[in-house]
Specification:
The chain is of the alpha/beta class. Helix content is 49%, strand content 14%. The chain has a nine-stranded mixed β-sheet, sandwiched between helices.
């Protein structure tokens, strides 16, 4: 039987081969020695075969240790412009090497004699790669079992579950081959498809619409794989703005079922909200207040009439149907947050992740020991990697340093980002929320004075107004977006333009 036929049959077998020894049957890890030999032989005969697999196949993917060594040597030679042949490889192997009774020269000659063609090299390499991923999967399974058996008494099962999820997703992320050059026609098709989807969405945007017209006009919506930082001093309304955006995205959601059974979002998105500061009840009350325009303190105290109660009930009914998921767990590490986000993506779908806020997250214990700056650096780097992995925008809130309070102009700058310059470095977009009204209100002079009338004039000019300052944007302009803010109901909305203000009746 030909070597290629044997290799294909073994690679296609549904289960790894069984070995019988003294009446005991056990399974070996998935592998295919003949396939590895055929590919290595192809590389030794024609180094072009190496370039067919070099972008995804590494020495560790080979099962046989000698094959790992041979592939590593061949790769080193080819990459420096030398020729990898049985003769050149022989000089890098021990003279007393014994492979199944063959010397190094004999084994290399055998590999070359039984080589597959260059055409088959890519398929053979992918099969070797897939078998290596299956072995890694088995290893993770064994680690999960052993950890469950040998776990110390003070370790929570939930920690083990999150560790298993993290290992599986790391394997899923690295367990992909592809990349490299692609035909321009393929890239063109992708660009046209993106434009078609943007045309079908609300606002004709390439990203998720925030529901605030002027902000969408400046940003083109929230883009996939972007880490968007929304920062501000306490009292500016950054949590309110994040809540408004998240709810707007979820409320606009529309989806369709794909052929594989998964739901694909066609408009709006499925939102995950990590509320590390507020409880789920406080967040829900805030959203109800924003939707009904009834002050949240009146809702909590029951100071509402029948008509207002009907509005609350209607808003609550709408909130039950939208895909808006809240996690109110405090003290999460960034690894735990990532595990929960992946789980939501897998089980329900996920198009936007909101985190309120970065400084309440924890990094690894090692980074924590190095200082808070290093810990925040790890957090922002992990969040950016998570946005790319899940292919969604992440809207993460951040505090600002007190340096803002020491300036006459309280408008925040990139240098005000608290605790780490990595926030600015890792973020694709950095936005600041600023309300002049907040600072001016605290400067109220004594009533009846000249200063009071001047203060009142200034207050009238800024009352109910907010600014979102885009300090950084990788794929768009920076600038300021003016908004309306109703503090009693924590609602941000578009500022009425002069030419859109209704004409007053005489």
């Amino acid at each position: 039987m030909a070597l290629e036929t044997i290799a294909r049959k073994q690679a296609a077998s549904p289960s790894p081969p069984e070995i019988h020894a003294k009446g005991v049957t056990y399974r070996t890890a998935p592998h295919n020695i003949e396939l590895e030999q055929a590919l290595l032989g192809a590389i030794l005969v024609n180094n072009e075969a190496f370039y067919r697999v070099s972008d995804f196949l590494e020495p560790r993917h080979f099962f046989e240790p000698i094959h790992q060594k041979l592939y590593e040597i061949a790769a080193s030679l080819v990459r420096v412009g030398k020729t990898a042949t049985p003769i050149t490889l022989k000089t890098f192997l021990p003279s007393d090497l014994d492979v199944a009774g063959l010397t190094a020269s004999q084994y290399l000659a055998r590999l070359a004699a039984e080589a597959t063609t260059v055409i088959n090299a890519s398929d053979y390499g992918r099969t070797i790669y897939d078998l290596a991923i299956r072995r890694s999967l088995i290893l993770i399974g064994e680690e999960v079992v052993n950890a469950a058996y040998d776990a110390p008494a003070d370790e929570r099962p939930q920690d083990q579950i999150e560790q298993a999820e993290r290992s599986l997703y790391e394997l899923a992320e690295t367990g992909r081959y592809g990349g490299g050059f692609q035909r321009f026609a393929q890239a063109l098709t992708t660009a046209v498809e993106m434009a078609a989807l943007a045309y079908q969405r609300d606002g004709k945007l390439s990203g998720l619409a925030t529901g605030i017209r002027d902000l969408d006009r400046m940003m083109g919506g929230l883009q996939k794989s972007d880490l968007v930082i929304l920062a501000g001093r306490p009292g500016m309304g950054k949590s309110s703005l994040a809540t408004n955006i998240g709810y707007n995205v979820a409320r606009a959601w529309e989806g369709k079922v794909r052929a594989d059974g998964h739901v694909e979002s066609t408009n709006g998105g499925i939102v995950g909200f990590f509320s590390l500061e507020m409880s789920a009840e406080q967040l829900a009350t805030r959203i109800i207040s924003e939707q009904t325009e009834i002050a949240s303190h009146r809702i909590r105290r029951g100071e509402i009439n029948t008509e207002e109660f009907d509005r609350v009930a209607e808003a609550a009914h709408e909130m039950q149907r939208i895909p808006f998921y809240i996690d109110e767990t405090g003290g999460l590490s960034v690894a735990q947050l990532a595990a929960r986000a992946r789980r939501l993506k897998r089980q329900r779908g996920l198009d936007l992740l909101v985190i309120d806020y970065i400084q309440l997250l924890q990094g690894s214990s090692r980074r924590a020991q190095e200082g808070r700056v290093q810990e925040v650096t790890e957090i922002t780097t992990s969040l950016k990697a998570l946005a790319k992995e899940l292919d969604i925008p992440i809207l993460a809130l951040s505090q600002l340093s007190r340096a803002v309070e020491n300036r006459d102009d309280k408008r925040p700058q990139l240098s005000d980002l608290r605790e780490s310059g990595s926030i600015e470095q890792d973020a694709d977009v950095v936005m600041f929320v600023f309300r002049e009204e907040y600072y001016l209100k605290n400067k109220e002079p004594r009533s009846g004075t000249v200063e009071y009338f001047q203060w009142q004039t200034e207050m009238d000019a800024v009352r109910g107004r907010a600014e979102v300052i885009i300090g950084k944007q990788r794929h768009g302009p920076t600038g300021t977006v003016a908004m309306q803010f109703k503090a009693d109901v924590t609602r941000f909305s578009d500022l009425a333009e002069a030419d859109h203000v209704p004409t007053r009746m005489p």
